Structures are given as C-alpha cells and as structure tokens.
Please model this.
Amino acid sequence: MSELTREELVFVALLGAQEYGLDPALICALCEVESGRVPWAVRYESGYEWLFGRIEDDFPGIIKFKHSYPGSLSTEVQMQKTSWGLMQIMGATARERGFRSWLTELCDPQVNLEWGCKHLRWMIDHNNAYGLPDFRIKPEDLAAAWNAGKARFVDGKYTNQSYVDRVVKAMEGYQ
Model:
C-alpha cells in the first residue's frame, strides 16, 4: 500500500473526526502535511525525551516502565521516540492516551486516525485555558499545537508559522 487516495483519506478521517467532534478537513490536512497520505510513514526522533510510563529510580540511565508492553525494553524506547502513520502520532503520545498494543499498529489508517483524533480532542480539552467552546478554537491553533505540543507565539506569529500555513492551505482542498 502506498499513499491513500484523497477519497480513502476523507472516508477514514470522517470516522475519527466524527467520533471526537473534530473538523474532518483539519484531520485530512494534518495527514497531508505530516505523512503525504502514506499510512506506513514513520520518523524516528532521536532527541525526543518524553517517554510515557518511565519510572525514575536510583539508577540514572536505567529505563523502566510502569506498564508491560509487547517487545523488549529497548524496542519500546525506540518505538516511543518514533512518529507513526498518517497523522505521525508519537509512540509515547499514543501510550499516554492508553494505546497498549504494538505501536506498529499505528500504521493502520483507522487505528492511526482513531488515536490521533483522540489525542487532538485531548489537546482541545486540556489546553483550552480560556474555556472557549470548541467552535471558537481556530484550526490554526490546533495545527500549531499538533506540531509543537501547544500553540506558541512570537511577535504575534506562531513559532511554527510555516507549518501552520501548510496545514491551512491543505485544509482548503478538503472544504
């Protein structure tokens, strides 16, 4: 399987978007920009430090996890530092949201969109410091947050403005 057609992407994006009350055009645009609609896209982020479930103990440099996951410890560490599939959701983020299976399953389009949309919904619910209703949250804010953890500004622009611009442009093709 290579890239999904636009129609295939819209179909699978509608499922996740509807379940979590999200704009399907935004979900499709994130997939376009993040993976080029390629479900098998993966990217290892060697500098990624936020491993989920890590237990700090008396032995610096030794990594242990609270939960048991499939595979070896070193494999789990590498997989949590990898972004997966259409939405390029980080393995650690999927773990944080409750994903307990092999992280490679995130390359399945339906699984990826389910967990990616679940995380985006969580971001809306937990990063909405103003208490605004969902319809007042701009897609640009969500795109910036998806890429950087939360929307950050410098001199009135997003710190990742070029990324946000690409997502907004891609959204136009799905309106």
The first strand starts at residue 42 and ends at 44. Residues 109-127 form the longest helix (19 residues).
